[in-house]
Every structure is written in C-alpha cells, then in structure tokens.
Amino acid sequence: MKMTFRWFGEGQDSISLDQIRQIPGMDGIVTSFIDIPVGEVWPLERLTALRRRVEERGLSMEVIESFNVHEDIKLGLPSRDQYIDKYRAALRNLGAAGIKVLCYNFMPVFDWTRSDLAKALPDGSTALAYEQDKVEGVDPAKLAGEIEENSAGFELPGWEPERLKALAGLFEAYKSVDAEKLWKNLEYFLKAVIPVAEEAGVKMAIHPDDPPWPIFGLPRIITGEKSLERLLKIVDSPYNGLTLCSGSLGANPANDIPALIRKFGAMGRIHFAHVRNVKIHSPHNFNEAAHLSREGSLDLYEIMKAYHEVGYEGYIRPDHGRMIWGEKGRPGYGLYDRALGVAYLNGLWEAIDKDARGGR
Ligand SMILES: [Mn+2]
Predict the structure, then answer these.
(1) pLDDT higher than 90, residue 11
(2) pLDDT score of 157 more than 80
(3) Residues of the chain with pLDDT > 70: what percent?
(4) Among 202, 228, 309, 319, which residue has the least CB neighbours within 10 Å?
(5) In this predicted model, what pLDDT tens digit does every residue of 91-123 receive, in sequence order?
(6) Which CATH number fits domain 2-356: 3.60.10.10, 3.20.20.70, 3.40.50.300, 3.20.20.150?
(7) Where are the alpha helices (DSSP H) in 167-250?
(8) Gap from CA of 233 to ligand 1 centroid (Å)
(9) What is the mean pLDDT of the chain?
(10) 319 is annotated as an active-site residue
(11) Quick one: pLDDT at residue 144?
C-alpha cells in the first residue's frame, strides 16, 4: 500500500509539498494540471519537470487524477475521435513521465456534485454535503454558480468556468444520451485507449460516479457492483481498472464496500483506493464525515481489513476531509483533516497487519 495525497499543483493549492512530506508515512502525491483545458494533451516536458520537483521534495509522483474525458467522447459525437487521439497521445506522455495510474471518470457534464460545500457540522467543522431536494430543486446553472461562489477562489475539477458557460448546450446534447448510449460511448472509448495504456504502462482506474445515482436527469452508470463488473468486462485487461472510492459508492448503503474490495481486489483490478467516510442521514442525503468509523456510516476498519486481505499493494489516499481548526482552503482538500485521515488509516493498517502476522 502506497500512501498518497491529492495536491493540485503550484499556484493551485494552498498546501505545500513540504507540508505533505511531513505527514507520517507519506509516499507521494496525486496531481493534475487543472490549468490545461479538458481534451488537450499534457506536455511531457511539464510532466517530467513537475515530477523532478516533487521527487526533490522526497515524494513520488506516480498517480494522476482529474485527467477528464472530453464531453464529445461521452456524448459519442463524430468529433470524439480527435479527442480520443489526444487522450492516447496524453497516455503516452504520462507513461514516458513514469506515471503508473490514471484516475478518470465518465460522469456526464458534472464531476462530483454536492448541494453544500461548507455545511456546518455539530462540532463547528464544515464539510461537503448532499441533499437531494436542494440539488433537484434548483436549476443546474444556479447550483453551479453557488458552487463557484463557495469554492474559496479555487477552480474545481468538473466545474471549470468554460464547462459552466456551455451548460445549456450540454444539457440539450445529453437529451439523446440515455444510460445504454453512455455505456456504448464508454465502450468505444475504452476499446480505443486501453491498448495504448498497456503500451504506455499506465493503468486506467475509473472513479465511480459521485453520488452514485442519476442527477438532473443525466444518466450515471458507474454506481455499484454490477456496473463495475460490466466495466471490467468491456476490456479484460489489468490496465482497465478501478479507483475504489469508499465515499462515493458508500453514499448508497446498498453498496457493501468491503465486499466490493474483496471481490475486485482479488481480481487485481483495483489500482487506486480513495478512502473516506460519509454520514448518511436518509436516502440521498449525506455529508462527508471525519474518517473515524464512528463519525460516519462506513466501517473503515472493515474497509482497510478487506484491502489487507486481498494483499493490496496499490495507491491509497484519504480522499476528502472536513475544514477544521479554522483552515481556509479548497473545499474537501484542506491539510489538517486529510492528514488526520492518513494517520488514522496508517494506524488501522499497522494494527491489521501486525495482527495478521500473529503480533509480530
Ligand atoms: Mn473519490
């Protein structure tokens, strides 16, 4: 298990590499170039230069996240082939730069969705929250405006200004794309890119839809066991794998996270573990919680035990955290609560590992 931390890059993140380095047991960062528009190729020189700077700070850079798939690919438009070519070129660059895992998603229009980026919790901390009525009761453009306003000045992956400007047109375009059509478009994409990922040595790891149900009438297809199984069968290669996000899938209590880890982990298809907790209040209403099991609805001990049982050797990160101790930062991505999450996950792992070896 290699512990990592999401870092948005110089000038994009209030947290420094030196701070991340000081979190006990930290191996590396997970990053992206969010200044490069979706669909464009990430230059090899920038990747290698950044990797060098990260390594000079004592951290590794082997995982990329939020390398988003262009909407034309998801929509299955004729123009998708040109974007698929760019995606393949980008995969080659990532491989040449030593990147091992690429986390992406296939959610129409929006990436993750929340109704509140700073919901006050009883202890005075704030966290991202999702209330179905608040989300479904508003015009998506209005919600997007609110999210932008409350993003503490940061550009959020999936909520980039250029995407938000095109919102009305995108919704119109998706009218002809139902879940089955979206599956077909995903299939077309994977069949085109996985052979290149294999050549480049970059494992693709799809992130489940967050939350794992349709919103705003848009289809969402990566939502639980059956869909993950279907996804893996499209191209039966270890390079077509998963980011198992406990918080995304776990927002639906029908998803048994430890069972999913045991199943897909034993198949060697989980390449990236996002581990966090959510507190479910009622169906389709939740807030993100501290990592500690009793603070939310998920059993993090069972989750880490499942990873241990399948001999998980991939990358893991604490995923989102709350805002605590007066920290101001990128919603979900402050330093303190995520660092506490790392310490807790490392503690669980040490105990589980030592127990499994008879206390040695
Ligand atoms: Mn996640």
Answers:
(1) no
(2) no
(3) 100
(4) 309
(5) 999 999 999 999 999 999 988 899 999 999 999
(6) 3.20.20.150
(7) 167-173, 179-200, 225-234, 246-249
(8) 22
(9) 94
(10) yes
(11) 81
* Structure-block tokens of residue 123: 């202890």
As a whole number of Å, the CA-based R_g of the chain is 19
Choosing from 70, 103, 130, 245, which is the catalytic residue? Answer: 245
From the candidates 274, 307, 312, 337, which is the catalytic residue? 274
For residue 95, give the H/E element and its range: helix 80-96
Residue 162, pLDDT > 80, answer no
Average pLDDT for residues 62-75, to the nearest whole number?
A: 95
Write the single-letter amino acid at 207: H
Ligand 1 mean position, distance from CA 319 (Å):
6
pLDDT 10s digits, 312-351: 999 999 999 999 999 999 999 999 999 999 999 999 999 9
CA of 80 to the centre of ligand 1 (A): 26
- Which has more pLDDT, 162 or 179? 179
Collect all residues with Cβ–Cβ distance below 8 Å to 137 and sequence separation of at least 6.
Answer: none
Residue 357 Cα to ligand 1 middle (Å): 30
Decide: 285 and 132 in contact? Cβ < 8 Å: yes
> What are the structure tokens assigned to 355, written together?
């127990």
Annotated active-site residue in 13, 70, 207, 337: 207
Q: Residue 350 CA to chain centroid, in angstroms?
A: 25
Is 207 a known active-site residue? yes
Q: Is beta strand 116-120 parallel, antiparallel or unpaired with respect to 126-131?
A: antiparallel
Q: Do strands 277-282 and 203-206 pair parallel, antiparallel, or not at all (unpaired)?
A: unpaired
Using CB atoms within 10 Å of the CB of residue 224, give its burial: 0 to 12 exposed, 13 to 18 middle, 19+ buried: middle
Nearest to 286 by CA among 247, 340, 342: 247
Backbone angles phi, psi at 117, to 5 degrees: -95, -10
Q: Is the pLDDT of residue 135 over 90?
A: no
Distance 275 CA to ligand 1 centre (A): 7
Mean pLDDT, to the nearest integer, of 237-256? 98
Determine the distance separating the centroid of ligand 1 and the alpha carbon of 248, expressed in angstroms.
Answer: 6
The confidence score (pLDDT) of residue 137 equals 78
